[in-house]
Amino acid sequence: MGGVGKTTLAKHIEYHLSEKPSYKVLWVTVSQDFSVTSLQDKIANVLGVTLSSRDEEDARARILREAFGKMLKLIVLILDDVWEEFCLDRVGIPLHPNKCRLILTTRSLEVCNRIQCQRKFDLQTLNKDEAWDLFKYKLGREPLLQGDLKSIAKSIVEECDGLPLGIITVAGSMRGVRDICEWRNALEQLKTCSIGYHEMERDVFRILEWSFNRLDKYERNCFLYCCLYPEDWKIKRKELIRHFIGAELMSKRDSWSKAFDQGQKILNKLIRVCLLEKAKNFEGDDRVKMHDLVRDMALRITHGNSKPESSRDDVPRFLVKSLGQKFSKVTQEEWTEDLHAVSFHSVSYDGAKIEVPPAWSPNCPKLSTLRLSWVCIKEIPDSFFRHMYGLKVLNLEGITELPNFVSDLVNLTALILGGCESLRFVPPLGKLKQLKDLDLSKTEIEDFPQGWESLVNLEWLNLNQCLTLRRKIIPKGTFSQLHRLQLLVLPLSGTVQVNDPEVLNQLEIFEGCLSFTDFYKIIRWPKYYNVYINDILTEDQFYDIDDEDSDSEDHRKKELYFHQCKLDRGSNYLPDDMTRLWILRIQLE
After folding, report:
1. Nearest to 91 by CA among 72, 75, 68, 117
2. Which of 157, 274, 336, 397 could make an SS bond with 169 (beta carbons 3.0 to 4.6 A apart)?
3. What's the rounded Cα separation, in Å, for the pair 341 and 243?
4. Which of 418, 304, 399 is closest to 356 using CA atoms?
5. Which range has the top average pLDDT, 44-48, 286-290, 412-416, 564-568?
6. Cα distance between residue 289 and residue 284, in whole Å
C-alpha cells in the first residue's frame, strides 16, 4: 500500500550501492502519468543522452541501449513508483547480469508479474515496537514521554496501524507539543477523523487529513497550492512563494523580502510536520516535493471529494490535469463557476498540445490562478479571459502568443511568462495597476511592453536573459512612479542600460547595466546586486560567466563588472560588502 516505505527502502539501496565503485546507480521516478516516451526522456536525462521528439520509439530505444552499452560500470536502474507494466526492450532498457540490473517499486503485484520480476519483496507495516521506535525518533528529544503522556502517545501511534508515512506525519505534527491536554485532544481528533476513502487508503488519508486540520488558515492554503504541480515534481521554493504572494495566500507584508521570509517560514513548517519533503534537483537547488499520497489527499480536498472539518466552506476548488503528447481539446464542462485555480501541465519534455474552443468564455468569476506549464496552445481567443475578472496569477510557461485581452485583467497581481522562449510581443499593460510581479525572463521580446512605466504597484520586474532587447537606454525619470519596485533584473549583456541611478536607492535587488558616470552617483547600494558598468552599449554578451549558478534564479549576489572603463586611481566608490569584482579591458587614469 501507499506510505509503507517502498521509496524509502529503495533510497537506502541506492545509497548503499552508490558507495561501491563498481556500480553506477540511476534513479528515475515514473509516476502515474506514464508513457513510453516520457520514461525514455527521463532515462535519457539521467544518462546524459539527448533524444529527439521527432524520432520514433524504436530509434529512441536504440539510442538508450547504445548509451547503456557504453557504460563501464554495472548499471543499477531504479524505477520508483511504477503503475503500469511496459516492455523493457521497447523503452530501451537492456537487462544483463553483468551490464544492467533493474529495481522497481510499485503498489501492484500484477505489475511485478507482467514485467517478469525475478524476486519480489512485499513490504509489511511495522509491528508495535518498530512503530513506537519510529515515532520517538521522528518526534525528537522533546517532549519527554513519561507517565500519562507516554500512554496517550502510544495510543496515537496505534491509530497509525504501523504505517510509516502515517507515523512520520503524526510525529511531525506533535513535535514540540508539551501540554498533555493537546495530546489528549489530538488522540480524540485522530479517532474521529474519517472520510470514507477506499479501504486500502482509508487509514493513511485519515492520518494525513488529521495533520492537515492542525494547520492554520495560511498554512492550509499554501499547502493545497502545492498540488497544482505535477506528481513527484521538485518545486522551486522561490517559485512557490512568488505564487503564494501573487495569490494573496499569506498575510500582507510591507516588503517583498518580508513576504518571502513568511513564505519560507510556512514551507519550513510544512516540512517539519511532514506534509512536504525537502528535495534537490540535479543542480542542487533547494526545492520541495509532495509524497504522492499527500498530493492525492490535497487533490481530493480541492476537487470537492472531501470537506475537512477545519476548512468548512472555505476550501478552494482546483482543476489539475496532466496532459500527454497527443493533441487534445479543453473539456468545457470542467470549468465550473466555483473554481479558484486551474493548472494544466505536460508530462512530456516537448510539451502537450491543446486547443481552446474559439469564442469560448468559461464562466469562472472566482478563478484566482491559471497555470499552464509547458502546454503548447495554438491560439487563446480574447473571449477566453472575459469572465475571469478575479484572476490574480497568470503563469503561462511555454506560450508563444498572448491574447490582447490580457491588457484588461485589471486585478492581475502576477504575470509570469518566464521561459516562453518564442514569445516576441506582450500587449499593453498600462491598465494593470494591481500588478506586482512581471516576469518576462528568457523571452524573445524586442521591446518593453507598452505602459509598463504606469505599473505603480510593481515590486518585481524580471527581464533576465532577454537578449533580443537591443541597444535600449532607460532614461532618467522612467521609474519615478514605481515607488514600490524592489527587484529589477535586466539582461547582463550590455544591451540595456539604466540611465537613472536614483532607482537603486529604493531597490533590494538589482541586476543590470549602468554607465560609468552613473555608477559614481549611487548613494545607497541595494542589498543584493549584480551590476555591469560600461559607457558603451554592446551587441553581444560581454563576458562568459564561469559560475556554478549562472543560470539559476538566485539573485542574492554582490558582484560588479567593469568593462572598457577609465578608472580613477584615487577614487573608491566600491560597496563595502562586495563579494566579487571583475575588471575587463579597463584603463587607469
Report:
1. 68
2. 274
3. 11
4. 399
5. 412-416
6. 14
Confidence category of residue 23, pLDDT binned at 50, 70, 90: very high
Q: Spell out the long-range contacts of 138-145 with Cβ–Cβ below 8 A and sequence spacing 24 or more.
A: 138/167, 138/168, 138/171, 138/172, 138/175, 138/274, 139/171, 139/174, 139/175, 140/175, 140/176, 142/176, 142/178, 143/176, 143/177, 143/178
CB 108 within 8 A of CB 30: no
Lookup: cell for 391: 484572476
Q: Which domains are assigned to the chain?
A: 6-114 (3.40.50.300), 128-297 (no CATH), 316-462 (3.80.10.10), 465-589 (no CATH)
Highest mean pLDDT among 177-191, 343-357, 526-540 belongs to 177-191
Cell numbers placing 279: 528535495
Phi then psi dihedrals of residue 158, to 5 deg: -60, -30
Is 446:424 a contact under the CB 8 Å cutoff?
yes
pLDDT digits (tens, 9 = 90+) for 506-561: 899 999 888 888 887 888 889 899 998 886 665 544 444 433 344 445 677 899 98
Q: Name the one residue in this structure whose C-alpha cell is 507584508.
A: 253
| Cβ atoms 511, 530 nearer than 8 A | yes
> Given pLDDT bands bounded at 50, 70 and 90, which one contains residue 562?
confident
Has residue 313 got a pLDDT over 90?
A: no
Tell me how far apart the alpha carbons of residues 115 and 86 are, in angstroms, rounded to a whole number. Answer: 7
pLDDT at residue 543 in the model:
46
As given in the structure block, the three cell numbers for residue 494 are 550590455
- Identity at 318, one-letter amino acid code: F
More confident residue, 331 or 41: 41
State the cell numbers at 351: 510539451
Q: Are strands 277-280 and 286-289 parallel, antiparallel or unpaired?
A: antiparallel
Q: What are phi and psi of 73, to 5 degrees?
A: -95, 165
End-to-end CA distance of the chain: give it in Å, rounded. 74
Query: How far, in Å, CA of 315 to CA of 303, rounded?
Result: 9
| C-alpha cell read off for 318 | 482546483
Q: Which of 383, 368, 509, 488 is nearest to 434 (CA)?
A: 368
Chain-centroid distance, C-alpha 539: 33
Band of the pLDDT at 434, cuts 50, 70, 90?
A: very high
Contacting residues for 212 by C-beta, under 8 A, at least 6 apart: 220, 223, 275, 297, 298, 301, 308, 310
Q: Mean pLDDT in the chain?
A: 85
Please report how the helices 217-225 and 292-302 are oriented relative to each other, as an axis angle in degrees rounded to 10.
110
DSSP for 200-252, written as a single string = HHHHHHHHHHHHHHTS-HHHHHHHHHGGGSPTT--EEHHHHHHHHHHTT-S--
CA 494 to chain centroid, in Å, comes to 30
**Percent helix, strand and coil across the chain, each to the nearest 5:** 30, 20, 50
- Alpha-carbon distance values, 471 to 431, 465, 497, 565, 583 (Å): 27, 14, 8, 18, 22
| Max Cα–Cα distance, the chain, nearest Å | 80
Sign of CA dihedral 199, 204, 207, 211: negative
